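Pipeline run #58 for the internal structure catalog. This entry was flagged by the ingest filter as a single-chain record with no existing model, so it goes straight to prediction. Upstream metadata was stripped on purpose; only the residue string is passed forward. Reviewer on rotation: M.T. Logging verbosity set to normal.
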Amino acid sequence: MIYFYLRLVVSGRVAGWRRPINFLNHVINRTTMENKDEMSPLSSLEDWDDDVLKRYPEPGQPAKTKEEFRNYDSPEIDGVREFYRLNHKYQTYDNVLAKKANFLKFDKKEMPWWDAMEYLNTLIDDSDPDLQLDQLQHLLQTAEAIRADGHPDWFVLTGFIHDLGKVLCLFGEPQWNVVGDTFPVGCKFSDKIVYHEFFVDNPDTYDERFNTKYGVYSHQCGLDNVHMSWGHDEYLYQITKDYLPEPALYMIRYHSFYSQHREHEYDHILNAHDQEMFKWVDKFNPYDLYSKSPKPPVVSELKPYYEDLIAKYLPLSVKL
């Protein structure tokens, strides 16, 4: 009932009210934090990765039909569907600004980079930990696939650290504020974003500032001037933006922006430089999606190489 009333307020159908941003955010945050199901609709963060792989299979592999993809009798699909319902409901312009104000202070933890990668491993998968590789092993697989193809060492390092931003889950963030397809906020949501129908519950859908093609932006204004939905991509970009080459930063910041680098839905706000840099995102994406293998890498053998690589490009410790 409360949410229905707020929808009326946001859409301007309650006389005498202006948009109650603080009250709306309070209700959203309180509801989210108090409801464990809304914190973790996925049994594992890997469920989202697997869902992306189903939508964008490796070239030469058959894509699933819409009916197969939305098999609602599958527990994993039920979790993914609920995850996107929450993501699309709560990923608002105001949410993004609030999360940037909180997490870009980088005052949660400070530790050596390798320790941070091991800290990421404390994210426990509830699905089947005996059969799944841990976060560090998955990242090493990605990096080693890039290395094997002879790419520059900064590209290899990018593959190794690109998911470190998922530590947001360890700071109490709900899954829908950590992973998921990313998209611009502050303008109309593209209908090519997965489960687009769930944006019906997002208050920005009814806000005249945000629900037009350009919203608060302008034609080809460039992605540096655009707020993306909050998650691990933006968080790690902000951590590394002073240290890595620009192509690496585009890979990190936009590797989950599937409605653009797969569907080209936001060409109207990208500028020419963005378009050029997205060639690097396209190069990175196959390693992100298709490099996983059930065979675990030998971490102890690889650690010295990656510690040297970290020392070459990054400071001794990372502030999270």
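catalog note: Residues 1-24, 30-34, 64-73, 125-131 have pLDDT under 50 and may be disordered.
catalog note: The chain has one domain: 35-319.
status: ready for reviewer M.T.
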